[in-house]
Amino acid sequence: MTILEVENLSAGYGKLDILKGVGMRVKAGDIVSIIGPNGAGKSTLLKSIFGILKPRTGTIRLKGKDITGLNPDRIARHGISYVPQLNNVFPSMTIEENLQMGAFIRNDDFSQRMAEIYALFPVLSERKKQKAGQLSGGQRQMVAMGRALMVDPELLLLDEPSAGLAPNLVDMIFEKIQEVNATGVSIVIVEQNAREALKMSDHGYVLAMGKNVLDDTGRALLANEEVGRLYLGG
Ligand SMILES: Nc1ncnc2c1ncn2[C@@H]1O[C@H](COP(=O)(O)OP(=O)(O)OP(=O)(O)O)[C@@H](O)[C@H]1O
Ligand SMILES: [Mg+2]
Question: What ligand 1 atom has the least distance to the C-alpha of 210?
Fold first, then answer.
């Protein structure tokens, strides 16, 4: 089953066109990576899917339902959650308060969900009364993911979750992403650590200058000599 389908998507800022007819398809249960050089439009693509940026042309479908142009809170209710590249926690709030904020669209009892998230990230459970701003980069990234997971999404969009982390923490975050995926959440991830991201990805898309360059299985992209040279640092 296809969970997400992006067709001929164009979007930009003011007069600036960034995405120029991008397409993408995500199968339910998959991890899909988006890689490409700085400024390619990777973050712009995630922002467009989540409705932060209104597409100029094109269609975005979630499980066949057209969600193009909806506001982020509506899109969250349809089952997509998003962790931005920057400023993705509330630093002056505690871990627990951050998770509560993540549940903003829920008016049911979310204590069970919170327990599941603490089980996934035990370190957050130990520190639930600590302010998010006092945490290490890796822990903050876990708070950001935990917050996004509070709505129990079917599809999680992650923008550079390993940015700025030491190599052992990069591995830890990637393991956590695979654990989240194993609970049935489909994942679209933008990564500078493209090689590592492709290793855990069912499929990958290469974007450059706002357009699709190519897409293939993670394994095939890793084995592609030109992809390696141009986009994976040799
Ligand atoms: N809010 C904004 N207003 C104007 N231009 C923007 C804005 N955000 C991004 N851009 C421009 O859009 C282009 C694509 O940016 P985007 O952030 O999508 O790239 P990216 O592929 O995520 O790059 P990076 O790897 O550096 O995160 C860049 O040229 C960027 O300068
Ligand atoms: Mg970006």
Answer: 14
